[in-house]
UniProtKB/TrEMBL annotation, chain A:
Stored Pfam families: Sen15
Annotated ranges, domain tRNA-splicing endonuclease subunit Sen15: 14-147
Gene3D superfamilies for the chain: 3.40.1350.10
Protein name, per record: tRNA-splicing endonuclease subunit Sen15 domain-containing protein
Coiled-coil boundaries: none
Family label: Belongs to the SEN15 family.
Domain of life: Eukaryota
Keywords, in A-Z order: tRNA processing
TrEMBL record, chain B:
Species of the source: Apiospora hydei
Name of this chain's protein: tRNA-splicing endonuclease subunit Sen34
Family matches, as Pfam families: tRNA_int_endo (PF01974), TSEN34_N (PF26577)
Annotated InterPro entries: tRNA_endonuc-like_dom_sf, tRNA_intron_Endo_cat-like_sf, tRNA_intron_Endonuc_cat-like, tRNA_splic, TSEN34, TSEN34_N
Domain tRNA intron endonuclease catalytic: 178-249
Length: 147, 278
């Protein structure tokens, strides 16, 4: 079992974009769910996914932001980036809520989420001229960041 | 508000596929207790072309009307059927009320006429005693049919609409496909306003819109409906520019579950989208 070629190619495009344009490190691509099973019997992910570490923190929950403003520590967060999940997509694709839910359900978080927080991923949308735009998608109703 | 006596149901008039609430008490009740503010659409009778600072009635979205019906705090009446039926079926109580209005009106007209005549008489016979002018007051006056209703009665009890009887036919509400998302957000205590301003189905406020900016622009989708990525990019980009999240969501349809599951607030899954600024 493997993903169709266009999905694999899409993933490698985004991989290179993150590595070369955005200076991400520890990039990995994932095709199957993490498990100790042999390669042949692992479950295939709904789509190929990437993980990586951005050079600085990409997302700060508004509640954390408020706490940090109180302690005047807003600049220290930049220095502690978090691993992000990335789902590569092409602009001409269509998706459904069901597919999005399946992608979220297949994500395994390394550590349990804090109270009231949801999973998030970065949706990387690729266009033919190799433009890639990134959007955060949260698995739930998450209030917007204050900026 | 004391909870000792149950509040009468809110009456929603359905006229030309619009859902209207005319009672200011109902409007305040909905805003305080059911996070529904909706849009004022009424003009002053003297200024029918008014387009700002509108007043009663408020026009509810179909989703709002449906949510209130499902919460059992309101009922929807089709006004185009209701009015003719009620006029045709006027009972003795209503006739009594109309007669009372006519009596009070004609009395008022009579006393006005008497005053005018007395004044005329006073000007005509200057020099005569005012007692002469007042004699007309006691003269018998023939009662005429009133030209117009000039009187305001102290009670309007007879005009009050009774709560829906069992025989009364209630109008149905045609909700759009995004209803499950609306009901879900409404259940969580958010205030929703029409989404025209930000190109979505609903603007979602975390509290009363007079106190808060909206947090989300929400658009409902079917569970298996194709969504163009460009729509998502457009919504996400616009939302970030106006400090909002773009919220998409819909009712989860799993294989074992039947489509006629009526509880719309359950089983809704929503996703918030923000530009990642990279």
């Amino acid at each position: 079992m493997a993903h169709p070629d266009y999905l694999t190619d899409l993933a490698s495009t985004v991989f290179e974009n993150l590595e070369s344009q955005h200076d991400w490190t520890l990039l990995e691509s994932h095709t199957h769910k993490q498990s100790s099973l042999p390669e042949s019997s692992k479950t295939l992910l709904p789509r190929p996914l990437l993980t990586g570490l951005p050079p600085k923190r990409l997302y700060l929950h508004p509640d954390d932001q408020v706490e940090l403003v109180k302690t005047h520590a807003t600049y220290t967060v930049d220095e502690t980036p978090e691993m992000e999940w990335v789902v590569p997509m092409h602009l001409n694709e269509q998706f459904t809520l069901k597919q999005l839910a399946e992608v979220f359900d297949s994500l395994e978080m390394p550590e349990p989420l804090a109270e009231g927080r949801c999973k998030r991923l970065l949706m990387a949308i690729v266009h033919d001229d190799s433009t890639v735009v990134y959007y955060f998608v949260h698995d739930g109703i998450v209030k917007p960041r204050q900026n | 508000m004391t909870s000792s006596s149950p509040r009468p149901h809110v009456r929603i008039s359905k006229a030309a596929n619009r859902y209207l609430v005319f009672d200011i008490d109902d409007v305040m009740y909905l805003r305080r207790n059911h996070n529904i503010c909706s849009v004022f659409v009424g003009t002053m009778p003297q200024a029918p072309q008014q387009s700002a600072f509108m007043g009663l009635p408020i026009e509810l979205m179909a989703e709002e009307a449906q949510v209130l019906v499902e919460k059992n705090v309101a009922f929807v009446v089709d006004d185009s059927n209701y009015h003719p039926a009620r006029i045709a079926a006027a009972g003795p109580q209503d006739r009594q009320y109309l007669d009372a209005v006519k009596t009070v009106t004609s009395d008022a007209q009579r006393s006005m006429r008497e005053q005018t005549e007395a004044r005329k008489a006073m000007y005509a016979n200057k020099g005569t005693t005012p007692a002469a002018a007042t004699t007309t007051k006691n003269s018998p006056v023939t009662r005429e049919a009133p030209e117009a209703w000039m009187a305001t009665l102290t009670t309007s009890g007879a005009l009050l609409t009774p709560s829906p009887g069992q025989d009364e036919q209630l109008a149905s509400v045609d909700v759009p496909a995004s209803y499950p998302l609306y009901a879900h957000l409404q259940d969580k205590g958010y205030f929703m306003m029409p989404g025209l301003r930000f190109g979505c189905d609903y603007n979602v406020y975390p509290g009363d819109p007079l106190r808060f900016h909206s947090h989300f622009q929400a658009t409902g989708f079917q569970w298996n409906e194709d969504i163009n990525l460009l729509d998502l990019v457009t919504g996400g980009r616009l939302g970030t520019n106006v400090k909002k999240s773009f919220l998409i969501g819909g009712r989860v349809e799993s294989e074992e579950q039947h489509k006629d599951n009526t509880d719309a607030t359950r089983d809704v899954r929503a996703f918030s989208i923000e530009w990642a600024a990279m």
